[in-house]
Amino acid sequence: MGIRLDIALLRSFVAMADATSVSGAAGQVGRTQAALSQQLKKLEQAVQQPLMIRSGRGVSLTTHGERLLAHAQRILRTHDEAVADLTGENLSGRLRFGCPDDYARVFLPGLLQSFASLHPQVFIEVVCAPSPRLLERLRDKSLDIALVSQPDSAERGHFLRREPLVWVGSKGSQAFRRDPLQLALSDPDALDHLAATASLDRAGREYCIAYASGSVAGLTAVVRSGQAITVMTLTGVPPDLRVLPPSSGLPALPSIGITIQNAAHASRLSSRFEAHVRAVLPTL
Questions:
Q1: Which of 49, 54, 80, 101 has its CA 20 to 30 A from that of 5?
Q2: Cα angle at 219 between 215 and 222, to 5 degrees?
Q3: How are beta strands 58-61 and 207-212 bridged, if at all?
């Protein structure tokens, strides 16, 4: 009898490849690390080839693993589409989704790609803006669903994840030493703006708003010039900028929570996308 590829084993294999670690994949597929390791062993026995190499940094694919990954992704996509079609769960339509700019670079590719693989007939229109503007658009129903930031609180159970706010500057720049401090911040009612000004006020540090905009691209351009510093979520910091350490003398900043909110009277499509985001976002 030839090789038979089990769907459950392939799904766990793809999760481990995407997460580059057994621990990261365990939460995504709802299995223990030991169970995932056993599944990988079974899959390697089935194909009679080593597929992954473990190291202190996680797992990496062998040449055979890379070849299988391409097949596995295609098999799972076709399998999931077939199941959705046969069970009447195949979705189609248009969804208007809001996402803050600083999350878009990190979270959107994984969220949209994985949802599209399950529901290829759904078109998702993405609007990027600060959380207060997204909430306004949810209220006037020009958005169906949105990721938004909220102040940290003791009631963290509804957060999809928490993110620390950090001071960010250009590499090599001494802008954080300026007096008064030059800031590039988002809209005045956005959490990064409120956290920055409140922390500096408490510390008695003089500052001025050198640039204010709802556009993260504009803010980061000013920071890259070395003329100002900004506040961002740690995850959202571009690789060419640097997180300013406590030794810079800047006051500590709070964390924020990321939640997802639907417009009133959520549709079946937006409810399914919300469930997808709740399952996938914590793993990204």
A1: 54
A2: 145
A3: unpaired
